[in-house]
Amino acid sequence: MWRDSVWRYADSHEWMARLRGGLPPLMITCAVNGGIQGKEANEALPERPEEIARQAKEAYDAGAVAVHVHARDPGNWAATSGDPDVYREVNALIRETCPDLIVNNTTGGGPTTTMEQRYRCLDALPELASLNMGPDMSRFAVAPRPAPLEHAHPGFVYDACIPFTYGIIEALARIMLEKGIKPELEIYQPGQYWVSGALIEQQLVRAPYLFQYVMGYQTSSFPTPDHLCALVRDLPADSVFFVCGIGPFQLPMTVMATLMGGHVRVGLEDNVYYSRGRKLRGNGEAVERAVRIARELNREIATPAQAREMLGLGEPRGYTR
């Protein structure tokens, strides 16, 4: 029962009692790719459906219970797709080799994703889907994509805001509820708890509520122990939290979340480096390190079956191409 693994994470006495008895098994999500960077950032970043499925299998074999996926556009591998048929193909390929892995598709998309495409990609029926709890404002330099990579492009500066409003977020949550998709509530800073609270009040999301803290992204909370502890203190009851750190903050945030009794997200979407000057060889390597850290801290690694119970999910969803 999921209630056995949900508790008051910020309660010192309960944390100490849980630590003595053993914190719940650690759930590891792997964000195998993203909506912006491709092979120009790390040649291991998967773009084609077959590549994404291979990287999902690598993460699964290493100990991940879920994969977060951005399908890429077959007409331009440098861009994200919003086509549900492309997501169906990716999800089906993942399921062929990972029978119980939890499939998580994005609604955040990428710079070229339209709001209509964010709705449409839910037609692929992932088991989880990310749902931003507020506008996504950022400015950063995108590296050149040189030939011989397909769909080469020069470098450019991305400077924009994706306008997630209360109405858009509620509409996406309502579609997910109707389709039996569990939302992964992405919190970038504590003010966004107002938005998740509105979803809970309207019963547009069901317990256990799944929160994903994004730490160190532009306009998100600072990736420090103090800011993470503050987010956890305000976590609603009946909730599970995951933490991802962007770039060099991935490792410390992984350690913090593991210590606090939460769960973690690693992978090439958030960080393309294993250490200073050395790129990750693949998503499996990122998961393997999270597993080693957890075991050193005396936390078991959750299986997909345990994760499904902890998140209130049913049997694995089947997919066909």
Q: In CATH, what is the homologous superfamily? A: Aldolase class I
- Helical residue percent? 25-40%
Average pLDDT value?
Answer: 96
Q: Given this structure, which CATH class is correct?
A: Alpha Beta
Instruction: State Rg.
Output: 18 Å
| Number of helices, where a helix is a run of at least 4 consecutive DSSP H or I residues | 10
Structural class category:
alpha/beta
Shape verdict:
globular
Strand content range? 15-25%
- What is the H/E string? HEHEEEHEHEEEHEHEHEHEEEHH
What gap, in angstroms, lies between the N and C termini?
A: 33 Å
* Strand segment tally: 14
The stretches of 5 or more residues where confidence is low (pLDDT under 50) are none
Chain-wise SSE layout:
Blueprint: H1 12-21, E1 28-31, H2 49-62, E2 66-69, E3 72-73, E4 76-80, H3 84-97, E5 102-105, H4 115-120, E6 128-132, E7 136-142, E8 156-162, H5 166-179, E9 182-187, H6 193-201, E10 209-215, H7 225-233, E11 239-245, H8 250-260, E12 263-266, E13 273-275, E14 278-279, H9 283-296, H10 304-311
Parallel strand pairs: 1-2, 1-12, 2-5, 5-6, 6-9, 9-10, 10-11, 11-12
Antiparallel strand pairs: 3-4, 7-8, 13-14
Helix pairs in contact: 2-3, 2-9
